[in-house]
Amino acid sequence: MTAYTSVMKASKFEDDLIPNLAIHAFRHAFEQASASSTVVYVKGQQLVQRSQNGQEIQLKDVSSDFVQIDGIPHRLKRKKKCEETI
Q: Most exposed residue of 2, 29, 36, 40, measured as fewest CB within 10 angstroms of its CB?
C-alpha cells in the first residue's frame, strides 16, 4: 500500500475522523484479503486461520504473549490558537 501525505492544515473535526477512517480502511482491506486467500490473524487471544470459504481453524493460544501496559499514553489535544482582533 502506498500513501501520499502532504503538509496541510486540518480542522479538529477532520483530525477526529482519522482513527475511524483507518478502522474502516483496514476492515475493507481485510475483507478483500480474506475473500481472495487464506489469512491468519488473532481473534480473542487465539491465533486463527481463515480460509476463503469462511472456515476458521484455531492454531494456537497466544494469551500468554499479551503484556499489560500500566501507563497508557493519553490522546494529544490540539491547543486552541488565540487570535487578536484589531
A: 2
